[in-house]
Amino acid sequence: MALPFVVVLPLLIVVAAGVYYIYNEVIRFMSKSLVRNKVVVITDAVSGVGTECAHLFHKGGARLILGGTNWDKLESLYDSLTSDADPRETFAPKLVILDFSDMDSMEDVVSEVLECYGCVDLLICNSSMKLKAPIQSVSLEMDRNIMDVNYFGPSALAKGVLPTMISRRSGHILLVNSIQGRLAVPFRSSYAASKHAAQAFFDCLRAEVEEYGIVVSTISHTFIDASHHPLAAGEPAPKTNALAAFIASQLTHGVRPSVLANEILQTVNRKRKEVVLAHPIPRVALCLRSFCPPFLFAVLAAGVKDSVLTEQM
Q: For the purposes of burial, counting CB atoms within 10 Å of the CB of 25, is it exposed (0-12), middle (13-18) or buried (19 or more)?
């Protein structure tokens, strides 16, 4: 006797979920094994995403070179990585002070990075500087600082390690960018400009180095949701328009550092050239920017007048 459909359907769902889980576990295991012995540079290892990447790649057996602007934080990360690690399976990380806001130091930084192991297999550029302000209030000096950290720094480091990658005809350069490298929103003029510049640079680089077997990847994500900030005790919740509040929540519903770090690992192992980590509304906005820009411009202009969107974008 055939089983009723109402019985078969739940069984199929359970079996499919089990297969999907096993598949993900196998892929995750293979991903870690693929980075073993690889020389991996993380430009901002002390950030939330950088720390997650450091733990992930360290467990996978990569030879890490960890960059950051704060030596104490780098040493703390070093201790957390090595305290419970098996020295037979992992390598002690190398630490390098790396500050993209100091462009005069970049030549020395490149030399120090290459001296660690003589080459770089994977460069992860995840350093970033953010700013939210009306255009007229942003000084030219601040514009330059943001361009140094978000564009000139990553591009200079990529140029610095490129000759060794070309000579070995292998390597991977990954830019952790932002959705605002594709879509500019109000009050993020300097930040969006720097991210657009970085996106364009690495897109050009990808085409130029493909013949040498070098992979260039970009990951465009919404904001990184490192923590939740509830309202202070006794603080009244602001009155907002329901539709505007929904749109704002979608635009600012960020990516957790652990999720982004796993995506970085998957991107490296699958050699993806471009990844967009965004929820439906930013994706729709990207489509509107391409196919119906006047409508998007009108929505953004109207959003500036709405207190909710102004605060959340």
A: exposed
Taking alpha carbons only, the member of 104, 79, 102, 110 closest to residue 92 is 79
CA atoms of 188 and 295, how far apart (whole Å): 20
In single-letter form, the type of residue at position 295 comes to F
Tell me how far CA of residue 179 lies from CA of 35, 58, 147, 247, in angstroms: 27, 28, 17, 16
Cβ neighbourhood burial of 117 (10 Å; 0-12, 13-18, 19+): middle
Say which residue the tokens 């990529």 belong to. 158
The pLDDT of residue 13 is 78
CA distance 96 to 312: 35
Give the max Cα distance, the chain. Answer: 79
Among candidate residues 99, 92, 87, 149, the one with its CA nearest the CA of residue 116: 92
Confidence at residue 278, expressed as pLDDT on a 0 to 100 scale: 86
| Residue 191 annotated as catalytic | yes
| Rounded CA separation 16/12 (Å) | 6
Per-residue pLDDT tens for 18-47?
765 665 555 555 555 689 999 999 999 999
125-174, pLDDT tens digit by residue?
999 999 999 999 999 999 999 999 999 999 999 999 999 999 999 999 99
Place of tokens 């297969």: 19
* Residue scoring higher pLDDT (229 or 71): 71
Q: What is the mean pLDDT of the chain?
A: 86
Check residue 187 and give left, alpha or beta (phi > 0: left; psi -120 to 50: alpha): left
- The beta-strand segments (E) located in 131-260 are 171-176, 214-221
The per-residue pLDDT for range 234-257, each reduced to its tens digit, is 445 555 555 555 555 555 567 899
277 SS3 class: strand
Which distant-in-sequence residues (6+ apart) come within 8 Å of 6 by Cβ? Answer: none
Among the listed residues 20, 151, 191, 212, the single catalytic one is: 191
